[in-house]
Structure formats: structure tokens, C-alpha cells
Amino acid sequence: MSTTGRAVYDPAEDGEGAAWADEREERRQGAALRRAMWGQERQGARDELRARVWLSADASRQLRAVVAGRAGLSPEQVLAQLADRARVDDAGAVLDPFVL
């Protein structure tokens, strides 16, 4: 280019091009972060268990009584707390009593 009299391209002198490159890099980093977060959410979803539980009338009444005594908790939340605290031995017996 210098033999034809034209200036050699210098990225440092190209403010508009540098701004576009910076914006592109920011978008790329944002997309990579969103992708990583999405992957973590998907992993969490794979680790979840959704179950439909049919309870006896007695168990249902007890669950409703617990829920009524704890404002703001749904029956599903109470069951999830119970499941989180469950500890089972090798024979399948529950080791510790549940305390909410």
C-alpha cells in the first residue's frame, strides 16, 4: 500500500472500528455468560424430581394442619422440606424424626 501512496491501515486510528470490535466482544462475553447460566439451570432441572403423591385421608389432614400452622407454606413446600430432611439406613428405615 505504501508504494501506491495509500496509508497503511492502523486499527488504533480507527475509532469506529475499535468501538464496533469492543461492542462485539461485550456481546460475545454476555452470550457466553448467558449460555453458562442456562447450562447450570438445565443441570439443576435434571436433578429435580417431580412426583405426584396420593396421601391417605389421615396424612392429608395432618399435612393440612401443619400447613395451616405455618403461614406462607404450601403443602408441596412442606413435603419438599420433609424429603430434604429424610435420612434412611441400609434397610430403608427412616433414622431421624422429622422436625419442621
Structure description:
This protein is mostly helical. It has two domains: 2-47; 51-100. It has helices at 15-47, 57-69, 75-85. The chain starts with 14 loop residues before the first helix and ends in a 15-residue tail after the last helix.
Distance between the termini: 78 Å
pLDDT averaged over residues: 82
Specify the helix fraction band: 55-70%
Residue stretches low in confidence (pLDDT < 50, at least 5 long) are none
Question: Number of helical segments?
Answer: 3
Number of domains: 2
Structural class: mainly alpha
Measured by DSSP, the beta-strand proportion falls in under 5%
Shape: rod-shaped
- C-alpha-based Rg, rounded: 30 Å
- One letter per element, helices H and strands E, the order comes to HHH
Largest sheet: none
Total beta strands: 0
Descriptive keywords:
single chain, 3 helices, 57% helix, rod-shaped
Describe the protein's topology.
Blueprint: H1 15-47, H2 57-69, H3 75-85
Quick recap of the structure?
Residues 1-25 are annotated as: Disordered. This protein is mainly α and 100 residues long. It has 3 helices and no strands.
